[in-house]
Amino acid sequence: MIHLTQGNIRLNAQARDKTEAIRIAGSLLVDSGNMQPGYVDSMLLREKVANTYLGNGIAIPHGLPKDRELIIQTGISVTQFPDGVQWNQGETVYLVVAIAARSDEHIELLANLTDVLDDPETVQRLARTSEPADIIERLTQPRDGGSVNTGAPADAADDFAKWVDVALTGPAGLHARPATAFVDIAKRFQSEVRVRHISKVANGKSLVSLLKLGADKQASLRIMARGVDEDAALDALAAAVRHGLEDETEAPTAGFAAPTLTLQARAIAGIAASPGVAIGPLRHFRRERIVVAVTANDAAHEQTRLQQAIATAKLQLRELHDEVKARSGGARAAIFRAHEEFLDDPDLVDATQRLIVAGHSAGWAWRQSVDERALEVASLDDALLKERAVDLQDVGRRVLRLLADTLEEEPASFAVPVILVAEDLSPSDTARLDPAMILGICTAGGGPTSHTAIIARSLDIPAIVGAGPAVLHQAEGSLCILDGDAGNLYPEPGDGDLALARQAQHEWQALREAERLACYQPAITTDGHRIEVVANIGGAAEAEQAVAAGAEGIGLLRSEFLFLQRAEPPSEDEQFIAYSAMTRALNGLPLIIRTLDIGGDKEVPYLSLPAEENPFLGVRGIRLCLARSDLFRPQLRAIYRAAATGPVKIMFPMIATVEELCAARTIAEEVRVELGAAVVDIGIMIEVPSAVLMAPELAAHADFFSVGTNDLTQYVLAMDRGHPSLARQADALHPAVLRMIDMTVKAATAAGRWVGVCGGMAGDPKGAMILAGLGVAELSMSIPSVAAIKSRLRAQSLADMQALAKRALACQSAAEVRAL
Ligand code: PEP
Ligand code: MG
Fold first, then answer.
1. Residue 571 C-alpha to ligand 1 middle, in angstroms?
2. At what angle do helices 107-117 and 132-140 cross, to 10 degrees?
3. What is the pTM of this model?
4. With CB atoms 3.0 to 4.6 Å apart as the test, which of 171, 369, 680, 694 could cross-link to 351 if both were Cys?
């Protein structure tokens, strides 16, 4: 227990704002020799990443854990502001309890504070008292040893049937930060959560209640849960306690000053899907009404119309696929291939034709058949299969539009930029939108990996998903603020809120601009570790763009680009010219050339490869190279020749076995000797679970590893990366994938090899932090991500990212990792 003395109390203070209040409160602790002045700045920094307002007029500012060495001796000061200080919007503070805590000596005082918190009269009395002794007495009087008023009973008979006992592992007991982490996790579950510490029981979803337990370091806790997800809640909470409840670490984005919005308007809360702030008129997304005749006289004519409409729709889908692929990559475009497949469904076509024969128009018959099937699919128990009903309706409308007698209402063309609100947006809907006219997107349904979320992120449009049906009832044209970072939509905000939102928008722009300006600075963490940030490219011109965007080299050249959209393979010379043009553009920066990775979803018509039942498990990647030395050897020759013009490394794709690697290496060495070329590093992609498990053996034959998280995720989770509904779930942040990467890094480190990651996860801010924490040395990503990821890495310490990675490895689902 620490002593609160008169010297640490200041009465009748005044401050214009929170910053001044913290400086006054902090200076008391500096004057009393408890901490160095730098810790006051640390307290101010913490306010940017956490809210220290405890409730009922009390705030507890404290510094960042990394600055603990600035604390000389644990101490607390209390500053009274009788006129109040605005802490955040709607929060007025009268007592500022500044904390400089080296360990857990302040826990008991904190518990007393929460008692005061329950009692507004006491707070008002202490906010006005002219006697420091009143404050000392109220905050230091011994509490009764029995239960505290938590709203939960302390009687053992009322404990829940399901519980788990754990001991606190952090250095400082269950104080504000770890208790907040506990509450955050508990709130993710529907079950009631209680925590018993000796004779007291707290509500596990209430910060105040938990603080009242007064649990100091190494205290034993009984975590209890009751409800539909009680087991999962207990597992997650126990794991979090065992991992120290963030006690030594900051939140992973602590140093990254993404603007935060605290507004007064009522918020409709959804799931944050794409960051940024949008302000503008709300517009409901409506699909046009398609009018078709019920009957038709000429069945043969209707049959022809049906065939023509299906053929045209297929053509549209193919064009859409290519367009989206060029803009957002193959995985995003794959959905349109799947839509094409629906149109080949003989049942659907047969059912329509039967209705036409029975005297209906092609349009009516098609709509009827699609609706029936969509209804069947929607009523399935499996949530993933259910989602295919949306795709079926989407492709159904595409054909129906072509069969329409009239289209009522033009969809999705807006006179002014809008915040678009929809139940959900289908891939075809988003493909038709003009991004320049969309300020933000808010959908009632969907999740963070839904199509809408992915598209919004790739277009850099702030978005919220899963906001519930309330958003669908907002007035058309009403002004709204959309906070894509917090996941809130604020309908009809006041002037004050609008001013704050505009300010946040400026901060976002400034942040992006700052990232852009700093894009050439290396990604050195706050504790001095460098992570190499390089780019993935698929074309000669992109090498130059990558350098201009701050990339420190090329971590993955997808050499397929040279082989696609042509009638025959490129010659050795043609390849040499392309590769050496890149080394010139890179001007000394490294270039990793991946040898041809064809097969699976990547087709090359002129190679006449036999159709495969299961192409993702067939002859693709290195298997094809080994089978086709007419392709492999000229490519290797071109690469070795280009290596004389700059620092080039070779990388083999889809290695699954040691034999494949050795065979490929043997051919490469033959080619090198033939040319009399210099030795270059040869690495492999880790994309197949067997490669992870054999990493120690593979490391003996490879100079480096680069993890292809796109393929690794699909093979680890057995979810096709282009599957219309599964692809959403194939999240590289799944703990199963993270554990695979962890194993890879450990095996490589033991063998003295470095590991990079060149799958999509490297360009995801949270993914990048976790990968750095797992020990990945090089992150290779699409060009637009380079500046932002470098900036995020520079704002973190490696120690924090390691702690984040550790927690991510202990999670049970990708959603849990994303919520960290
Ligand atoms: C990967 O699989 O993660 C990868 C980078 O390779 P590609 O996406 O080209 O298959
Ligand atoms: Mg791959």
1. 24
2. 110
3. 0.53
4. 369
